[in-house]
Amino acid sequence: MLFQDDPRPKLVGIARLAASSDLLEAKRQVEYLELETRRFIGRGSGRMRSIWTINPYRGCEFGCKYCYARYAHEFMELRDPELFERKIYAKQFQSAAFRAEVRRLKLGDVVWMGTATDPYQPAERRFQITRQILAVFADERGLDLGVTTKSDLVARDAALMVQIARKNKIRVHLTITTLDEPLARLVEPRAPRPALRLGAVKKLTDAGVPVSVLAHPVMPLINDSEDSLDRVCAAAARNGASSFSAAPLFLKPCAAQVFLPFLEQRFPHLLRRYRERFENSAYLKGHYPEMIADRVERIRARHKLAERREPEWPLPEGTFDDQLELFPSLAKGPAAEKPGSPAGTLQRKVNRL
Ligand code: SF4
Asked: How far is the CA of 220 from the centre of ligand 1 (A)?
């Protein structure tokens, strides 16, 4: 068995202080840019073809070590994976143009916001694109909306979501991988603390917005114990969530190049086992995913929560091809930062938050 014991390091005292000072330093390095966008609503591909996707931002400041979306920056030739969390692009939003896109949707269409990056990351406080998008949906009817986030900022829009729910379906999927705050700080360094996310679950459900809690991803020997997952599920139930799900980590190459060095630094005793397990596939196969599925099923039954997955998890290959459609020419490789390149003319630097 490759994943057995669980000697997890705890951050205490000075180590905890050092972690917060790293956090402040990292925040100072974040740069925000605006990006012209032909269209906001993209199509999923493959088995996700029936889903429409919206991602108001490219890049994500939360900087989760397992993030699978870093590849989106590679299309702009921003190959340093750290740039995904330091160079954040806000898509320029025009309400009339977006409304015209929405009018092309059909009754019952599923629209999923936050498939590639978090729609409530810190940039949202300033640009408020997610909020403007929701304001347009509030005038529509017959759509099935999902919003996935790790941020408590989502509770700001509870009233708007209630308005949307009068004529559409809407559900928020809040990701909480652990209640262990030092661990969350290590793995999701700039995402809001789990307690804040739970507070958002409560605010949303008190307002009448349905919420699912997702403990994705389940990382072997890091957050996968029955006790750890049970505590997340119990807290989700206490705060009004109606469903809970969790599925194992997958490691695409763009994620592995951040996650494996992170393991080496923080969980060196696990590095060999992760390398062996993910050597030939981005997905864990065999006994482990079955064991986690059984564990999650037991936990869900204990707390009487339903299963509600995001449209598909783990995400299939090529799910977010709409990222390419944003810059068809970038898929062929001009450097985003090069003067005169398509991306160079499309992006406009804005001042720091
Ligand atoms: S919140 Fe989501 S998009 Fe942002 S870094 Fe974490 S996993 Fe990636």
From this structure: 19
